[in-house]
Amino acid sequence: xxxxxxxxxxxxxxxxxxxxxxxxxxxxxxxxxxxxxxxxxxxxxxxxxxxxxxxxxxxxxxxxxxxxxxxxxxxxxxxxxxxxxxxxxxxxxxxxxxxxxxxxxxxxxxxxxxxxxxxxxxxxxxxxxxxxxxxxxxxxxxxxxxxxxxxxxxxxxxxxxxxxxxxxxx
Length: 170
Description:
- By secondary structure, the chain is mostly helical.
- Helix content is 61%, strand content 8%.
- It contains seven helices and three strands; from the N terminus they run αααβααββαα.
- A hairpin with a 7-residue loop joins β2 and β3 (114-118).
- α3 (56-67) packs across α5.
- The protein starts with 8 loop residues before the first helix and ends in a 9-residue tail after the last helix.
């Protein structure tokens, strides 16, 4: 797919929707735009993380562990905080563990709980990758901080109304 399209497919879809279902055209265009932007941002973020051997999913797991005081979390709690299925956490931690960035252990407090702990190498990589993402404005170059905050607020409202969180940003 070319980098710059000679027309806007979403605008054309909006035109078509407006002719048939005008009361739904704006919602269709908004959802389609969010889906497309998600693809673009994931590609940009993954491009920034590629030199570090990370995908965004791996980065998120590593960064979450780096944020904790002890450098470790139960794997089940990681799934909740990352908003992913437990199998996705297991997969990510397995990949990070193979590279020596994370270690797994049984919780001394509850032997049924598996802890993921960041290693010094993992902490260093998390910092380097975070610096790179910050330098790249997380794939939003040219978007002013105020505009990014407004966008996050709008998306938080959508998440609230979809039942994703009990916290409404408004």
